[in-house]
Each structure stands twice: as structure tokens, then as C-alpha cells.
Amino acid sequence: MNSISAIFSLFLVFLFFVIVLVLIGFVKKKINQLRYTKREALFTKAEINFLKTLEKIVVNPNIAIFGKVRIADIITPAEKTNTKEWWQLFGKISSKHVDYVLCDKNDYSVICVIELNDSSHNTAKAKQRDAFVREAYQSANIELIEVKARQYYNVDKVREQFPEKVRGTLKLG
Questions:
Q1: Which residues have C-beta within 8 Å of that of residue 130, sequence separation ≥ 6?
Q2: Looking at the whole model, is its pTM more than 0.85?
Q3: Which of 34, 51, 62, 153 is the most exposed place for a label (fewest CB within 10 A)?
């Protein structure tokens, strides 16, 4: 019986090592499946051109310009909504972003958001999304400035698109 139990013990040790090796191979394979590629830039060429224009307009050192901000980091569903409705409303904004946000550097409160509208905004689905986003910002009392995307921007014409209320807050250059 001793030799049988010794063989069985060796078999269990062998089986343990086989299982460990299989698990290590599985984990390595899983890790190797995560393949990412670095994007060339955070912004598209049109977004870079607009940002450079925006930096000429927003000369107030107390204003911060942020790009590619998730809408759910700017607005949130009202606390008065029930849990199910809250999550539904949050789901509508959690994976969307706005092109630029201007904030007061004193408390980083949002002054306004800016959306560049290129040809991708012309589809029926995009128009529905844009209408929802406009309504959401309006309900949160946040100014949304929509600018038609162009290859090049005229500083004066872009400045004119800022509502008077926002221009006063920003002290635009």
C-alpha cells in the first residue's frame, strides 16, 4: 500500500504542476491579447487648429481650457431622480465627451463647453445626440457654444460666437 500511496502522491504533485503550467500559459495568453496602439495625437488637426484659435481668444490667466472631457464629468443626473432613472440618464452621458471646456481656475467650475460640429454631426443619429446634449446642458444651466468645424479659424469670428454673458466672464482677448 505504501508504494501505491507514494505513486498516487507523485501523480497528484505532477497533476498540480501541470495545472499550474496551464494556468500560467492561459494568463500569459490573456495578457498578450491586450494589444493597444498609441494614437498619434490627442486631437485631430481640426481640433488642434481650433485649440490654437481658442488660446488666442481666452487670454485670461484665470481660465483653464480642457479638451476631450467626458460629459458625465461636467453634468450629472439630478439627485431627485429615482435610482433606475438616474442610471438611465447617466448612461446617456457617460460615454459621450465634449471637445472643450472652459473653467475658472479659482475653483475649476465650468464656465462653458464648446463643441466643434463637423460633417459627422449631419447624420440623423448625430442630430438626435446633439439635441439631447443641448437640452442636458440647458437643464444644468451650462452654456454650450457650437462652432462649425473648419480647416482654419478667424479669431474675431470665433470670438463673436461666444454669448455676451460668457464673454464678460472670460474677459476675452
A1: 115, 117, 121, 146
A2: no
A3: 34
